């Protein structure tokens, strides 16, 4: 049996064929099927609701788009589709693709990115940490509601973990929270949140 490598895709091809397909990302030209489950979407939905309430209370010019792609690098065929993203509406006029496509290319437009961990946890804990930091996104949350991440990332025993990554001097400082602990976000200091609030019933 011979292995035939998948034909690499350009960012433009991905946008044309999969831009509206919420189950797909692009990484270095390779199509990635994210295959979200019902419980994954439950956690994403509950957390987006909590963030939305905080946005209304704080009356910031920020919002959560229904769908959005992040293009972290102009020269690399990568397109990330975060589970939740908070955008600053006041700077979207500077985004070159926004008027025609929901694509963000500048970290200045993004206040927060949230990834709910699934079986491809390595990407959320390693690759996306680097990409989002390089893009200058001030805060990144990794919601590992099933404790899937490697021991190097969430420790022993493996358990549900919520990681708040805050950008300090171009690198993320990470703070982890477990079940029953109050989560603190520098971006949303008044947000009352713990992991139990967003777990599937």
**Residues in helices, as a percent range:** 10-25%
Gyration radius, in Å? 17 Å
Tally the helices. 4
Largest sheet strand order: 3-5-7-8-9-10
Net shape: globular
What structural class do helix, strand and pairing data support?
alpha+beta
The ordered string of helix (H) and strand (E) elements is: HEEHEEEEEHEHEE
What value does the average pLDDT take?
Answer: 93
Strand residue content = 15-25%
Domain Putative restriction endonuclease: 11-193
InterPro entries: Nuclease_put_TT1808, Restrct_endonuc-II-like, Uma2
Protein name: Putative restriction endonuclease domain-containing protein
Organism: Aphanothece hegewaldii CCALA 016
In words, what does this structure look like?
With 201 residues, this protein is of the alpha+beta class. The chain has one domain. The chain has four helices and ten strands; from the N terminus they run αββαβββββαβαββ. The protein has helices spanning 11-18, 38-58, 121-135, 151-154; strands at residues 24-27, 30-33, 62-63, 69-70, 84-88, 103-104, 110-116, 139-144, 161-168, 171-177. The strands form three sheets. The chain has a six-stranded mixed sheet. β7, α3 (121-135) and β8 (139-144) form a beta-alpha-beta unit.
Summary of the model, kept short:
This protein has 201 residues and is α+β, with helices and mostly antiparallel strands. The protein has one domain. 24% of the residues lie in helices and 23% in strands.
What keyword list fits this structure?
six-stranded mixed sheet; alpha+beta; globular; single chain; 201 residues; 10 strands; two-stranded antiparallel sheet; 4 helices
